[in-house]
Amino acid sequence: MKILNLYAGLGGNRKLWGDEHEITAIEFDPAIAAIYQAQYPKDTVIVADAHQYLLANHASYDFIWASPPCPTHSSFRFNIGVRFRGVKAEYPDMRLYEEIIFLKYHSKSLWVVENVKPYYEPLIKPTIDLQRHYFWSNFKIDNAKFESDKIRTAQIPDLQRLHGIDLSKYKIPEKRKLLRNCVYAPVGLHILNEATK
After folding, report:
1. Where do the H-state alpha helices sit in the chain?
2. In what helix (H) or strand (E) does residue 147 lie, and over which residues does it extend?
């Protein structure tokens, strides 16, 4: 299959997909894109705006995975507990819903959009809730159980082990945040397998 992996980050979702597919990864940050490329040298990695790339290229792929930015949707924004008090209020990043609607009505590909469980009632009902994420898709995703992880409290060494990604040789900021943003690899594989049933 030709797969488009949008907002690719470190490629946590892609880790168990193997190399039998033709995968194009879109990542806006060149330093993060370089780490992704080092992990998955057979993938085509493009440094670009994933939102615009999807609009221009959606018809060229068999399967599309989008993980639009989640921080403005996350429960930590809603002042839950002392640790997160004082977090600046922001408008939710509506690319999440723009992409779900766009794919639903304009894409002939199999597609899935992933994001955190938000602090508000989702504006579009997700297809499924897996681990700590919501997924919207145009195919059925069966429920599955995955090892629970203490992602909120996990530190960099634990997160690196969990995701099988070693960032020790990279000088990049916010390593913990990057690792926390990874979709757990078995979840990514489960969804790809569901799409290809």
Report:
1. 30-39, 50-57, 95-106, 156-163, 175-180, 185-195
2. none
Q: How far from the centroid of its chain's Cα atoms is residue 76's Cα? A: 18
Structural domains in the chain, sorted by start:
2-148+185-195 (3.40.50.150)
**pLDDT at residue 93 tops 80:** yes
User: What token pair was written down for 134?
Assistant: 């919501």
Q: What angle do CA 183, 186, 187 make, to 5 degrees?
A: 55
Q: How confident is the model over 108-131, as a mean pLDDT?
A: 92
Contact 97, 72 (CB under 8 A): no
Confidence of residue 82 (pLDDT cuts 50, 70, 90): very low
Q: pTM of whole model > 0.70?
A: yes
Exposed/middle/buried for residue 105 (C-beta within 10 Å: 0-12, 13-18, 19+) = exposed
